[in-house]
Design goal:
heterotrimer; A: about 375 residues; ABC transporter involved in vitamin B12 uptake, BtuC; 3 strands; about 5% strand; globular; B: about 280 residues; alpha/beta; Rossmann fold; 2 domains; four-stranded antiparallel sheet; about 40% helix
């Protein structure tokens, strides 16, 4: 409307009146405030050991959830292989960091370098997978991405990487195949996963990665590319009919998502001394998908919040001991039923409506009381 | 409106008065077009020549193959035989989005809007190729992004105003009333800056006053943008009122061609619509 | 000769995949949802039969029947409580709920039966058969599995083509709204589908654990995914497709393990699946759906 153009005169008001800008702003604000609070709590020594251990994984899962939301929520393609890209990033990151230990002594710089390389390899994987697979639709795309994730995991599970003074050695199936010198040490040991890794990931790098992810995804969504991607999701045939190259945009979303997942994977791989390929099976892909759906399709802030809460939930429910995972399952089912079932939704509205009415009566009575 | 047309009108080098269309190269030249679906011939030997600013009608009974012809023109289907020349260029083998970029835009019989996006964004998606700003500059929010977006907003708003949709710019397309959705679809098609606009049953589901308004609007689109329009329509009043030339198809073949007056009295047309009768009543 | 041995083993494991895949494909065809919890129903079936045999000291036949009854009831309950309220909403919402149900079943099993792996005693008492001077070994389990699967498939085919309920199922999968207008009780038909699928899962659970006796709460998960893959491979929604897909997947897997590499069998099996889907995007026997413009 005209109103929009006029309100440009007042920059602050236009910033707040524009709905997309408002969501963008609040998304950044929530993430930054949460980071500051966690930092303060941590420096005050108020975080339990288990909680501190969750800080980097939470960052990792937030980035994974946002990047998967780009594919599932915004591009509208069901992908069940997101953990595969995370795995590529984790293993590439771990190998890179070990290989560069002598060359780049500074841990932060090495971490950044490893994450970038993890992202690049995940991007290559994303291209290899995306080009043939994005032609498929719906459930077929889901199963093929799942299959690709499992293939990546299967290969990583049999990959041996070692390093000696001559450089990196790669082999499949056995350590002997590496032919390392005596000084050599293992980096990846097949089913045993990464070994001898110096954990260099920090909460701060995780936080910065979240900010970068938000910056890329939010800017992408609110641009002509983002509009094209959403248009394809809403109506592929109509999008084609207004001159949009469907494959090219689906691929863009898919590869960007893979890059971010690869970087998050590298951060994850370098946050602990040992990571096995089991971590990157379809169960993890599904966990990330749960974050996305519970947070709301296409809702970036929702992904951030859902990833945080659901990563912490099993931790918070520790007092429930053996019952915590089953409680998690029940919470998941109940939340899905209440947020999606038309009947239950109606029931909630009735209840909240009654509550409001009741509250209204209560306040009215008070007013009457004061008047009298 | 005058100031507006200066900005929006595409003034191609071959721009001229409509009366002179016949002397100029056609914008669209369809030759001997045909398509088979697994042995079944849906369209056969279809010929059509459209002048650069002509409004023509494509009519025929249900299932005659009209929408299939639109799908062929927009490369949703690839023809089995014949060729489509758009400003002299054969569109054979091109994908839909390429054909659109070359200048054919369309609307759909069963409305296909981007339902989760606002009316404004629907139009802006249509303007995609004309928003000049690289992928990197939108990711990094460089000044060129803001410049391009601002220009796009302005142009999209002008288009919405032109179609009488300015007050629903921020409303989600899916929640708009039916008639408004149809107009928004036309606005989105116009946003692609076409030289040929294909309208698939634009008046379907509209009441008489809405249809009358649409008739005016179709003329206004042609006059303002100086483009050719082909419409599929069952509302004979609309077709006879607005079209300068009419093609009638039945069973995928042309059964008559001519001006509205000629078509009205054509026995083959009357037979196709009303079945064989001794004395043909008017449609 | 070795190849023949792999083929027989593949046929056996493939038949189990086929039985599980039937559950996936029927539910998909009729309720248009991916029932991710199907694999865990297999696990429940295996545990029930185990308990009846070990704790109640009942003969295997009773154990199998008990497993079938429990799983059937479980399947119908899951459908009524978790899936029916979401019918008609986003398919992704149903998928996530199914994942929740899967977690629930796995963790419930862990609470009831513990994390520790149990050793399942085979329900088959038949002697192994040696052919070609002992070069080929066919275990009793293999024979029973193949015969059971053949019987199940024949029965199911007859059921869907001959009985009233079977025809109703086909009608619902073809066009739910039209079927409803024709007076078919859609809710009941979907419930019956879940009942049949879950009964099949119980049989598959018993056969699976008889062949490889390790029983733990996550036992059903991997065969479930494999069978889901098989269903897609054959063309999801198609009953003959699920049978073909299951058997082919089993045979390919065993041949891979025997001839190429045990470690890379997962990658190879999934690789074949991807190639098939890229060449034939709706699976081997799936219907090509042309989108209308």
């Amino acid at each position: 409307m005209k109103k929009n153009i006029h309100s440009m005169n007042n920059p602050i008001r236009s910033l707040w009146n524009n709905k997309t800008r408002r969501t963008t702003f609040s998304t950044y604000a929530v993430v930054i405030v949460a980071f500051v609070i966690m930092q303060l709590l941590d420096s005050a020594g108020m975080l339990s050991y288990a909680m501190r251990g969750q800080l980097i994984p939470i960052c990792v899962y937030i980035v994974l959830a946002i990047s998967l939301n780009l594919v599932v929520g915004i591009s509208g393609e069901l992908s069940l292989g997101h953990a595969g890209f995370m795995g590529v990033g984790a293993f590439v990151g771990a190998v890179t960091s070990t290989a560069l230990q002598g060359l780049i002594p500074d841990a932060t710089l090495r971490l950044v370098f490893s994450m970038v390389l993890g992202g690049i390899f995940a991007a290559i994987m994303g291209l290899i997978i995306g080009i043939p697979v994005l032609r498929l639709r719906g459930d077929y795309l889901a199963i093929v991405t799942l299959a690709f994730g499992e293939i990546i995991r299967n290969i990583a599970n049999n990959l041996y990487v070692g390093m000696d003074e001559k450089g990196l050695h790669f082999a499949f199936l056995s350590e002997e195949g590496l032919h390392m010198s005596d000084a050599g040490k293992l980096v990846m040991a097949g089913p045993r996963g990464t070994v001898n890794i110096t954990p260099i990931a920090t909460f701060l790098t995780g936080f910065i990665l979240i900010l970068i992810t938000l910056f890329i995804v939010l800017n992408l969504v609110n641009s002509k590319e983002g509009r094209a991607i959403k248009a394809i999701r809403d109506n592929r045939i109509a999008a084609e009919s207004v001159g949009i190259n469907v494959m090219s945009f689906k691929l863009k979303a898919f590869v960007i998502s893979a890059i971010l997942a690869g970087m998050a994977g590298a951060l994850y791989g370098l946050s602990m001394s040992n990571v096995t390929s089991v971590k990157f099976s379809f169960t993890t892909s599904i966990d990330i998908l749960v974050f996305v759906v519970l947070g709301g399709m296409g809702n970036i802030l929702g992904s951030v919040i859902a990833a945080t809460i659901l990563t912490l939930l099993p931790e918070l429910m520790r007092p429930l001991a053996d019952y915590r995972m089953i409680m998690y399952a029940i919470v998941l089912i109940v939340v899905m039923l209440f947020t999606w079932s038309p009947k239950l939704k109606g029931a909630i509205e009735v209840v909240t409506g009654n509550l409001k009415e009741w509250l209204g009566k209560l306040t009215n009575k008070k007013e009457v009381g004061t008047n009298g | 409106m005058a100031e507006y047309s200066k900005k929006m009108v595409k003034v191609p080098t071959y721009s001229y008065l409509r009366e002179q269309d016949a002397d100029k190269l056609p914008v669209l030249d369809v030759r001997n077009l045909g398509i088979d679906f697994g042995g079944l011939t849906a369209v056969d030997s279809f010929n059509m020549t459209i002048g650069p600013t002509e409004i023509s009608g494509l009519i025929g009974p249900n299932g005659a193959g009209k929408t299939t012809i639109f799908n062929l023109l927009t490369s949703v289907y690839q023809p089995t035989r014949g060729s489509i020349l758009l400003r002299g260029i054969d569109t054979k083998g091109m994908s839909t989005h390429k054909v659109t970029r070359m200048g054919i835009a369309r609307t759909f019989q069963n409305i296909r809007l981007f339902t989760d996006m606002t009316a404004m964004d629907n139009v802006k998606v249509g303007m995609h190729k004309d928003i000049k700003c690289s992928f990197l500059s939108s990711l990094l929010r460089l000044p060129s992004y803001y410049k391009a977006e601002k220009a796009a907003d302005k142009k999209a708003m002008e288009l919405l105003e032109f179609m009488g949709l300015a007050d629903v710019a921020d409303v989600k397309a899916g929640s708009l009333p039916y008639g408004v959705q149809r107009r928004l679809e036309i606005a989105r098609a116009l946003a692609t800056n076409p030289s040929v606009l294909l309208l698939d049953e634009p008046a379907a589901g509209m009441n008489p006053s809405e249809t009358a308004e649409l008739t005016e609007q179709i003329r206004r689109i042609r006059d303002t943008f100086q483009i050719a329009i082909i419409l599929i329509e069952h509302d004979m009043n609309l077709v006879m009122n607005v079209c300068e030339g009419i093609v009638v198809v039945n069973y995928g073949k042309i059964i008559a061609k001519g001006t509205p007056e000629q078509i009205k009295d054509d026995p083959a047309v009357i037979e196709a619509y009303l079945g064989k009768k001794e004395d043909g009543a008017a449609c | 000769m070795a190849v023949l041995q792999y083929l027989i083993n593949g046929l056996s494991i493939g038949s189990i995949y086929a039985i599980i895949a039937l559950g996936y494909t029927m539910v998909y065809g009729i309720a248009k949802m991916l029932n991710f919890a199907h694999g865990d129903v297999i696990m429940v079936g295996a545990y029930i039969s185990y308990c009846v045999m070990i704790y109640l000291k009942m003969p295997p036949v009773v154990a199998i029947l008990a497993a079938i009854v429990v799983c059937t009831v479980l399947g119908v309950l899951i459908e009524a409580l978790a899936y029916r309220p979401l019918r008609g909403t986003s398919s992704l919402a149903v998928l996530i709920t199914a994942i929740g149900v899967s977690y629930f079943l796995q963790n419930a099993a862990q609470l009831i039966w513990g994390v520790a792996q149990k050793t399942y005693s085979s329900v088959v008492t038949m002697e192994s058969v040696h052919l070609f001077d002992g070069k080929i070994l066919i275990t009793g389990e293999v024979i029973v599995t193949i015969i059971t699967s053949a019987v199940v498939m024949v029965c199911l085919t007859l059921f869907t083509s001959k009985t009233r309920t079977g025809k109703a199922m086909r009608a619902v999968s073809e066009d739910r709204d039209a079927a409803q207008l024709m007076g078919i009780n859609v809710n009941r038909t979907i419930a019956v589908t879940f009942a049949i699928g879950s009964a099949l899962a119980a049989i598959a659970g018993v056969l699976l654990c008889s062949a490889s006796p390790a029983l733990k709460p996550t036992t059903g998960s991997m065969p479930g995914i494999r069978a889901f893959t098989a269903a897609v491979f054959g063309g999801i929604g198609s009953v003959p497709g699920a049978m073909l897909g299951g058997i082919l997947l089993g045979v390919i897997e065993e041949l891979c393990k025997g001839l190429i590499s045990t470690q890379f069998s997962d990658a190879i099996v999934f690789g074949v699946l991807i190639i098939v889907l890229l060449v034939k995007p709706t699976g081997l026997l799936g219907k090509q759906i042309q989108e209308k413009v």
